[in-house]
Amino acid sequence: MIVTDGVFSMDGDFAPLDKIRKLADQYDACIFVDESHSTGFVGQTGRGTPEYFGVEVDVINSTLGKALGGATGGYTTGRQEIIDVLRNKSRPYLFSNSMAPTIVGAGLEVFDMLTATTELRDKLHANTLRFRAGMEEAGFKLMGHPESPIAPIMLGDAKLAAEFAEEMLELGIYVIGFSFPVVPKGQARIRV
């Protein structure tokens, strides 16, 4: 089994699922993708990196938080045999309560909304491209896939990143400065 994030949370990179699919086919392997940072954001209808790359994967794990409303909980999809194993072996599943019906209902409604229209995803996509272009034009170095809404602004110095985040908050803009050990030394950043 090949396990990967769909979009990497600190860098905004997309996993190259087209290449991973070829590798999995070559070695008769399954693909497990954590879509927590791409569900609702990536792909023509917000269905994540498998949709973006046009490939099938065997297991998708994601959250009902982030794009799907900030709620608690998450989900795993896959063949029934895989889900059965997870139900019997996963400690978080075995030792937790079921999600509240209101959370399940809200999650289902958001999936219906994603199916009905791509308007919000399209607006996010346009804003992402505009933001990235504007930041690069202003002289900032950004990381990640050019279409990724996770846009790390590279500042290098940990102290600078912390001060930058504080000053942005004073302006009413909430961003987080990340530095070592969350990211490699010398690669401190503000993650937007």
Helix/strand/pairing category: alpha/beta
Distance between the termini: 32 Å
Return Rg in Å.
18 Å
Q: Report the CATH C-level class of the largest domain.
A: Alpha Beta
Secondary structure: helix percent: 40-55%
Word description of this protein:
By secondary structure, this protein is α/β, with parallel strands linked by helices. It has two domains: 115 residues, Type I PLP-dependent aspartate aminotransferase-like (Major domain) (Aspartate Aminotransferase, domain 2, 3-Layer(aba) Sandwich), CATH 3.40.640.10; 73 residues, Aspartate Aminotransferase, domain 1. The protein contains seven helices and eight strands, in the order E-H-E-H-E-E-H-H-H-H-E-E-H-E-E. It has a four-stranded mixed sheet with strand order 1-2-3-4. It has a four-stranded antiparallel sheet with strand order 5-6-8-7, covered by helices on one side. Strand 2, helix 2 and strand 3 form a beta-alpha-beta unit. The longest helix has 19 residues. The model has no long low-confidence stretch (mean pLDDT 92).
